[in-house]
């Protein structure tokens, strides 16, 4: 199995999908005797439901996973048992707060208006072809920086140091996928040998590059932590700060420093939490938006329906808002911030407005079915167990499931599953059709389901609606869109 896999690395997700379809949804992957590669690979939703929901305690991330994802430290992506429970509960209580939701959405709304749209306007005026994925990736980096560490690097200003931070973050995760594909002994040897000269054929240079990138990004996070601690120490006490913040918007770093719950949140804890949040909430959104605009460009009827839905909703909202608008005008002392807020809300829909866009919601679900941002997931059995359909696994068995292959599994999505059809998500009553998380697996399922799902939907809808109201994108002739083989599925640019 290893030679065919290596031969198909450039199209690894489609290769897995084909092999799994041929083998009824589940197969064993065995590397040669000298490797430690022995996996059960599946796209069977009942097995996935069993691992993620029904027998959750028996399927962990495990040591090997933590080795591969070493940059993630002890954050929620790699943690198991009590450590995971503590971080999950903590983040749940912070991320689900109304004021955090409001803060994130105001940040995104302002950023779309002051940065994303002007960049696209400029490109349009110059008649330039744009790499939309690159623009979106920088935009999402600024957003996640603002909401996690309370600092906006402002990519549009183009300061070289800021671009370097973004580059460092991208590179710090670049070779993680590769570590899944080769025996652990191989990438560990490459990492160990990195002291030497760059030797591309051995990938040694890549491991070295990843370590250096990780260090640069850590320096950035640690400096954010230090300045945040200093800023907070200037307040007379944390309790006063908390009282003051009750109504105010806040970034997650401030919240994590002030919300210790029986455990000390030292700098390493904060670094790990921040790195994991950056990874969870940044490229995932870039990925969905990139594939969304690509699919929309290929499906003009869907595009027209989304635009019509936005217009219809705006018409009703304008009628409702008329009174408020007149009242605002009576106040002649509007300061700059209020002026900005007003102009922004005329161009970029707010969170309550986008929540009404059902068809757009369906289109985004459809994008994530076909291109789930996290294309493969990995679990390790703690004890021997029997999976649905009678498959026996031993303790320590490594199980890989493929959300990518699940998205086009006919048993889950019936015959037309290769088509892009937002309609499959809309009921006769015009509401969103619910699909159980273990089938629509883009956000994971069970106790470890994504905590940022609702936030992500609103952000993506704000960006998609703002862009579609102003621009119509077309794919450059001859451009072939292929998924990258990385831990988050982006689009290959060459
Ligand atoms: C389209 C956007 C997103 C997608 C597709 C997505 C997908 C996922 C997936 C697949 C997982 C499970 C990862 C694993 O356990 O291996 C996850 C977990 C998580 N996500 Fe998201 N995510 C998105 C956006 C966000 C955002 C914006 C945030 C918050 C800022 C966020 C926060 C989290 C957290 C905290 C977890 C950990 C849950 C746990 O382990 O208990 N995600 N997400």
Automatic annotation (TrEMBL):
<feature type="binding site" description="axial binding residue">
    <location>
        <position position="450"/>
    </location>
    <ligand>
        <name>heme</name>
    </ligand>
</feature>
<dbReference type="GO" id="GO:0016705">
    <property type="term" value="F:oxidoreductase activity, acting on paired donors, with incorporation or reduction of molecular oxygen"/>
</dbReference>
<dbReference type="InterPro" id="IPR001128">
    <property type="entry name" value="Cyt_P450"/>
</dbReference>
<keyword id="KW-0479">Metal-binding</keyword>
<dbReference type="Pfam" id="PF00067">
    <property type="entry name" value="p450"/>
</dbReference>
<dbReference type="GO" id="GO:0020037">
    <property type="term" value="F:heme binding"/>
</dbReference>
<comment type="similarity">
    <text>Belongs to the cytochrome P450 family.</text>
</comment>
<keyword id="KW-0503">Monooxygenase</keyword>
<keyword id="KW-0560">Oxidoreductase</keyword>
<dbReference type="InterPro" id="IPR017972">
    <property type="entry name" value="Cyt_P450_CS"/>
</dbReference>
<dbReference type="GO" id="GO:0006629">
    <property type="term" value="P:lipid metabolic process"/>
</dbReference>
<dbReference type="GO" id="GO:0005506">
    <property type="term" value="F:iron ion binding"/>
</dbReference>
<keyword id="KW-0408">Iron</keyword>
<keyword id="KW-0349">Heme</keyword>
<dbReference type="GO" id="GO:0004497">
    <property type="term" value="F:monooxygenase activity"/>
</dbReference>
<protein>
    <recommendedName>
        <fullName>Cytochrome P450</fullName>
    </recommendedName>
</protein>
<dbReference type="InterPro" id="IPR036396">
    <property type="entry name" value="Cyt_P450_sf"/>
</dbReference>
<dbReference type="InterPro" id="IPR002401">
    <property type="entry name" value="Cyt_P450_E_grp-I"/>
</dbReference>
């Amino acid at each position: 199995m290893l030679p065919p896999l290596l031969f198909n690395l450039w199209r690894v997700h489609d290769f897995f999908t084909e092999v799994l379809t041929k083998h009824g949804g589940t197969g064993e992957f065995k590397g040669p005797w000298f490797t430690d590669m022995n996996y059960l690979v599946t796209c069977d939703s009942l097995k996935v439901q069993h691992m993620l929901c029904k027998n959750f305690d028996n399927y962990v991330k495990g040591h090997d996973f933590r080795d591969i994802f070493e940059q993630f430290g002890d954050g929620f992506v790699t943690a198991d048992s009590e450590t995971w429970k503590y971080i999950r509960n903590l983040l749940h209580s912070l991320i689900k707060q109304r004021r955090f939701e409001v803060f994130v959405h105001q940040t995104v709304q302002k950023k779309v208006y002051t940065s994303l749209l002007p960049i696209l306007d400029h490109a349009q005026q110059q008649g330039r072809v744009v790499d939309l994925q690159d623009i979106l990736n920088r935009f999402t980096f600024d957003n996640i920086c603002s909401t996690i560490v309370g600092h906006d690097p402002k990519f549009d200003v183009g300061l070289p140091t800021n671009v370097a931070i973004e580059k460092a973050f991208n590179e710090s995760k670049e070779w993680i996928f590769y570590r899944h594909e080769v025996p652990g002994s191989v990438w560990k040897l490459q990492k160990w040998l990195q002291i030497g000269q760059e030797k591309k054929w051995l990938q040694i240079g890549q491991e070295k590059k990843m370590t250096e990138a990780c260090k640069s990004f850590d320096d950035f996070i640690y400096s954010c932590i230090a300045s945040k601690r200093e800023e907070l120490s200037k307040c007379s006490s944390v309790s006063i700060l908390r009282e003051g913040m009750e109504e105010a918007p806040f970034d997650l770093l401030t919240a994590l420093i002030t919300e210790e719950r029986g455990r000390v949140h030292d700098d390493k804890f904060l670094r790990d939490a921040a790195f994991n949040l950056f990874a969870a909430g940044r490229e995932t959104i870039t990925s969905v938006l990139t594939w969304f605009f690509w699919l929309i460009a290929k499906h003009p009827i869907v595009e027209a329906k989304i635009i019509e839905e936005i217009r219809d909703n705006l018409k009703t909202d304008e009628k409702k808002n008329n009174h408020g608008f007149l009242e605002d005008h009576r106040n002649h002392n509007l300061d700059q911030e209020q002026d900005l807020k007003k102009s922004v809300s005329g161009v970029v829909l707010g969170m309550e407005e986008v929540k009404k866009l059902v068809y757009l919601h369906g289109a985004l679900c459809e994008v994530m079915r076909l291109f789930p941002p996290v294309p493969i997931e990995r679990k390790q059995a703690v004890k021997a167990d029997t999976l649905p359909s009678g498959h026996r696994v031993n303790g320590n068995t490594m199980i890989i499931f493929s959300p990518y292959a699940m998205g086009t599994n006919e048993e889950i999505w019936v015959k037309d599953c290769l088509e892009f059809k937002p309609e499959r998500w809309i009921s006769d009553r015009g509401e969103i059709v619910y699909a159980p998380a273990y089938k629509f697996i883009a956000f994971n399922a069970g106790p470890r389901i994504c905590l940022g799902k609702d936030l992500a939907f609103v952000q993506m809808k704000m960006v998609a609606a703002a862009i579609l109201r102003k621009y119509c994108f077309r794919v450059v002739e001859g451009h072939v869109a292929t998924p990258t083989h990385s831990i988050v599925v982006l689009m290959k640019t060459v």
